[in-house]
Amino acid sequence: MRWALFLTPLVLFSLLMNAGPVLKRPMGIDDRFMAFLEETEQATLAEDWPAAADAWRRTDRAMSLVIRRVQVMSERDVAQDIFEDLAQLQGAIQAQDRSGALTQIAVLKALFKQLGQ
């Protein structure tokens, strides 16, 4: 019985720390970060700046939802970098800077892969 008291928290903690890939997945229609980021990329490639700004807003909201789920097992630096790059992406879209926006989108994709690993 004593070993169960020791083993149960250890197992639960281990499961929580390895749940990053599962918790990053969309769990609703508002937290599809990668889908919204793809929409932002497509609008940027087409230089449809109003659509890119709208897709960016959905991307930013989605990341706010996703980060709540993965913040326990993710590194704080990665999450902070994602929000900084989202801000830089917003600036590039407002400036209608296609290359700057596409660069930030590529960085965001790479950072999202690292999140929760």
- Which assembly state applies to the chains in this document? single chain
Order of helices and strands: HHHHHH
Question: How many structurally independent domains?
Answer: 1
The number of helical elements comes to 6
Q: Average pLDDT across residues? A: 83
| Straight-line distance between termini | 33 Å
The biggest sheet amounts to: none
Low-confidence stretches: none
| Backbone CA Rg | 17 Å
Describe, in plain words, how this protein is organized in 3D.
The model has no long low-confidence stretch (mean pLDDT 83). The protein has one domain. Helix 3 packs antiparallel against helix 4. By secondary structure, the protein is mainly alpha-helical. The chain is elongated. 79% of the residues lie in helices and 0% in strands. The two termini are 33 Å apart. It contains 6 helices and no strands.
Give the SSE map.
Layout: H1 2-17, H2 20-24, H3 33-45, H4 49-70, H5 76-94, H6 98-114
Helix pairs in contact: 3-4, 3-6, 4-5, 5-6
Provide keyphrases for this structure.
117 residues; elongated; mainly alpha; 6 helices
